[in-house]
Task: structure prediction
Amino acid sequence: MMRIALIGTGNLATHLAAALQNSTTIDLVQWIGRKTTPPKQATKGLYFTHYQDAIKTDLCLIAVTDDAIPSVAEQLINIDVLVAHTAGATSIHALKPIKRRGVLYPLQSFKENFPVDWTSTPICIEATNPKDLKLLKTLASQLSESVHQITESQRLQLHTAAVFSNNFCNHLIGVSQHITTKAALPFSLLHPLLKETFERSFLTRATDLQTGPAKRNDTLTQHKHLSVLSKKDAELYRILSQSIFNTHNT
Result:
């Protein structure tokens, strides 16, 4: 059974801890965080404020903010196990003081109280030597059916694409919700449209599916839309409309 140490107590770390604790082939032997109070999900005797050298461990996962990875790595210089961070946009070299370095990047959005289907969540892996890559692949395969060995450059581009498809889309949906609320309309009116939009994009290139006033340069309709928007939302509308127009008319 693979023995795992997990560092971090945020959204990703909490979801990872739950997945590791629910596995019959993985043993979460230590969960480490800065807070003195253990997370409510931590079983008794599992949580520590520092890495425990005395507890036999095969792999240490760092699931903290990108900026905190180097400082956490500095504290693990002398441990003789594979250390892997879970960030999409951080180089494996952020772990440089450590000899055995890797990355285990789950491509998913993690939020408290929203369960994640780990079996379908893509996990992207990278390591500095073949033996450790095999170890990461074993762990990832026990969590997910979608495991991919990719390069650091590919991971950064994938993370960038994820920001567009998840974070930016979510922000735009939030703007839509604000508009419908202001108009005293239920946002559920847009549910079928949203569902159709995303399902179509799974079948073919989204660029080929583009419709709307920006693509056809319908300036009259666009001016009407701008009239009901706040100043900051109007600015966003203009930027996106110009991008759509440029994509299809240049």
Notes: The helical segments are 11-22, 69-74, 130-143, 152-182, 191-201, 219-227, 231-249. The chain is about 40% helix and 15% strand.
